[in-house]
Structures are given as structure tokens and as C-alpha cells.
Amino acid sequence: MKRLTDSERAEKGIPDVLQDTGVWNVWECEPSKFNWHYESEEQAYLYEGRVKVRAGSQLVEIKAGDYAVFPTGLNCTWEVLQTVKKVYRFV
Fold it and tell me: Which of 11, 32, 45, 70 shows the greatest Cβ crowding within 10 Å of its Cβ?
């Protein structure tokens, strides 16, 4: 797991609001499909790629430039359509 420096965040175009909220981790994933359970709330900012996340009957598409919050206890299925690069943290 890699932690971004201030210059790396600026280079990747991550919004200032994220820079002021603590340490963020980097995650990358190639196209795939998998189930996921959130033990705690995750805040994430995608700076590359596109995914569809399904929770029950709700389907949400998340793409580069989107900020998402996944609540504690969420069970969902991720379908990575284009390689994803995101920064995230658990709160």
C-alpha cells in the first residue's frame, strides 16, 4: 500500500478537500467482478477508470473524478469496467 505525498496528489489532480482530511491510501484494480463487504465507512476518490457498484437492486456507476462514500455494513458487487485507480480511507 502506497501513501501519496502532497506533490503526488497535486500531480494526479486530487481535489484540495481530500488533501485536508488526512492520509489516503492508493488502490488499483484491472477489469474484474467481485463481491465486497465494508466493515467500516470508506471515502474514495477515483482519478482513473470506471466501475459499476450494485447493492441489492441499486446500481451506481462511478467514474474518474467522482467522490464516493460507502457506508459501514454495505454488501455490494463491484464490476470494474476500466482499470481503476483511486485514493481511499476508512473512517
Answer: 45
Provide the percentage of residues in the chain whose pLDDT is more than 90. 57
Say yes or no to pLDDT of 4 above 80. no
Question: pLDDT-derived band of residue 5, with 50, 70 and 90 as boundaries?
Answer: low
- The radius of gyration of the chain from alpha carbons, rounded to an integer in Å, stands at 13
Query: Does residue 1 belong to any structural domain of this protein?
Result: no
CB 64 within 8 A of CB 26: no
Give me the helices (H) in 1-91, please. 6-12, 16-19
CA angle 7, 8, 14 (to 5 degrees): 100
Count: domains in the chain: 1
The CATH number covering residue 47 comes to: 2.60.120.10
Mean pLDDT value of segment 56-70: 92
- Which positions ≥6 away from 64 have C-beta within 8 Å? 46, 47, 48, 49, 50
